[in-house]
Amino acid sequence: MDYLISFLIGGVICALVQILLDRTKLMPGRVMVCLVCGGVILGFAGLYQPFQDFAKAGASVPLLGFGNVLWKGVKEAVDKNGFIGIFMGGFKASAVGISAALVFGYLASLIFDPKMKK
Protein backbone atom coordinates (compact mmCIF):
# COMPACT_ATOMS: atom_id res chain seq x y z
CA MET A 1 0.00 0.00 0.00
CA ASP A 2 2.95 2.34 0.70
CA TYR A 3 4.06 2.05 -2.93
CA LEU A 4 0.62 2.97 -4.21
CA ILE A 5 0.31 5.98 -1.91
CA SER A 6 3.82 7.16 -2.86
CA PHE A 7 3.06 6.76 -6.55
CA LEU A 8 -0.26 8.61 -6.31
CA ILE A 9 1.03 11.51 -4.19
CA GLY A 10 4.15 11.95 -6.33
CA GLY A 11 2.02 11.76 -9.46
CA VAL A 12 -0.39 14.39 -8.16
CA ILE A 13 2.51 16.73 -7.31
CA CYS A 14 4.00 16.26 -10.78
CA ALA A 15 0.62 16.69 -12.48
CA LEU A 16 -0.05 19.93 -10.59
CA VAL A 17 3.36 21.26 -11.58
CA GLN A 18 2.75 20.30 -15.22
CA ILE A 19 -0.61 22.11 -15.15
CA LEU A 20 1.16 25.14 -13.66
CA LEU A 21 3.73 25.05 -16.46
CA ASP A 22 1.08 24.64 -19.18
CA ARG A 23 -1.43 27.21 -17.92
CA THR A 24 0.87 30.04 -16.82
CA LYS A 25 3.73 31.95 -18.36
CA LEU A 26 6.12 30.87 -15.61
CA MET A 27 9.40 29.49 -16.86
CA PRO A 28 10.45 26.03 -15.61
CA GLY A 29 13.33 27.46 -13.56
CA ARG A 30 10.98 29.73 -11.65
CA VAL A 31 8.56 26.90 -11.00
CA MET A 32 11.41 24.78 -9.63
CA VAL A 33 12.48 27.62 -7.34
CA CYS A 34 8.86 27.98 -6.17
CA LEU A 35 8.75 24.26 -5.36
CA VAL A 36 11.97 24.34 -3.35
CA CYS A 37 10.85 27.47 -1.49
CA GLY A 38 7.45 25.87 -0.90
CA GLY A 39 9.16 22.86 0.69
CA VAL A 40 11.16 25.18 2.94
CA ILE A 41 8.05 27.11 3.97
CA LEU A 42 6.03 23.95 4.63
CA GLY A 43 8.94 22.54 6.65
CA PHE A 44 9.19 25.76 8.66
CA ALA A 45 5.46 25.68 9.36
CA GLY A 46 5.72 22.06 10.54
CA LEU A 47 3.35 20.82 7.82
CA TYR A 48 5.77 18.92 5.60
CA GLN A 49 6.90 16.21 8.01
CA PRO A 50 3.38 14.79 8.64
CA PHE A 51 2.75 14.95 4.88
CA GLN A 52 6.02 13.13 4.21
CA ASP A 53 5.26 10.51 6.86
CA PHE A 54 2.02 9.75 5.02
CA ALA A 55 3.26 9.98 1.42
CA LYS A 56 6.78 8.54 1.98
CA ALA A 57 8.88 8.78 -1.22
CA GLY A 58 5.99 10.45 -3.06
CA ALA A 59 6.70 13.55 -0.99
CA SER A 60 10.45 13.25 -0.41
CA VAL A 61 11.60 12.79 -4.01
CA PRO A 62 10.07 15.87 -5.74
CA LEU A 63 11.62 19.30 -5.33
CA LEU A 64 9.31 20.00 -2.41
CA GLY A 65 11.22 17.32 -0.52
CA PHE A 66 14.54 18.91 -1.48
CA GLY A 67 13.37 22.20 0.00
CA ASN A 68 12.38 20.42 3.18
CA VAL A 69 15.82 18.75 3.41
CA LEU A 70 17.44 22.18 3.06
CA TRP A 71 15.22 23.53 5.84
CA LYS A 72 16.06 20.65 8.17
CA GLY A 73 19.79 21.07 7.53
CA VAL A 74 19.74 24.80 8.15
CA LYS A 75 17.66 24.39 11.30
CA GLU A 76 20.03 21.77 12.75
CA ALA A 77 23.14 23.78 11.83
CA VAL A 78 21.74 26.98 13.35
CA ASP A 79 20.88 25.13 16.55
CA LYS A 80 24.41 23.72 16.69
CA ASN A 81 26.60 26.54 15.28
CA GLY A 82 24.53 29.70 15.56
CA PHE A 83 24.32 32.27 12.77
CA ILE A 84 26.98 30.62 10.60
CA GLY A 85 24.72 27.56 10.37
CA ILE A 86 22.51 29.49 7.96
CA PHE A 87 25.24 29.19 5.36
CA MET A 88 26.51 25.67 6.01
CA GLY A 89 23.40 23.70 7.01
CA GLY A 90 21.79 23.41 3.59
CA PHE A 91 25.03 22.30 1.97
CA LYS A 92 25.67 19.58 4.55
CA ALA A 93 22.11 18.26 4.40
CA SER A 94 21.87 18.10 0.62
CA ALA A 95 25.43 17.14 -0.29
CA VAL A 96 24.78 13.40 -0.61
CA GLY A 97 21.78 13.83 -2.91
CA ILE A 98 23.50 16.35 -5.13
CA SER A 99 26.66 14.24 -5.30
CA ALA A 100 24.65 11.15 -6.21
CA ALA A 101 22.87 13.05 -8.98
CA LEU A 102 26.20 14.19 -10.42
CA VAL A 103 27.81 10.75 -10.24
CA PHE A 104 24.85 8.90 -11.73
CA GLY A 105 24.43 11.56 -14.42
CA TYR A 106 28.07 11.16 -15.37
CA LEU A 107 27.79 7.37 -15.42
CA ALA A 108 24.70 7.60 -17.63
CA SER A 109 26.63 9.85 -20.04
CA LEU A 110 29.33 7.17 -20.29
CA ILE A 111 26.84 4.40 -21.00
CA PHE A 112 24.70 6.33 -23.48
CA ASP A 113 25.73 8.69 -26.26
CA PRO A 114 24.43 12.16 -25.26
CA LYS A 115 23.93 14.64 -28.05
CA MET A 116 22.92 18.28 -28.10
CA LYS A 117 19.51 19.09 -29.56
CA LYS A 118 19.57 20.86 -32.91
From TrEMBL:
TM annotation in the entry: 6-22, 29-48, 83-112
The encoding gene: spoVAE
Stored Pfam families: SpoVAC_SpoVAEB
Highest taxon of the lineage: Bacteria
InterPro entries: SpoVA
Keywords per UniProt: Membrane, Transmembrane, Transmembrane helix
Protein name per its UniProtKB record: Stage V sporulation protein AE
The species this protein was found in: [Ruminococcus] lactaris ATCC 29176
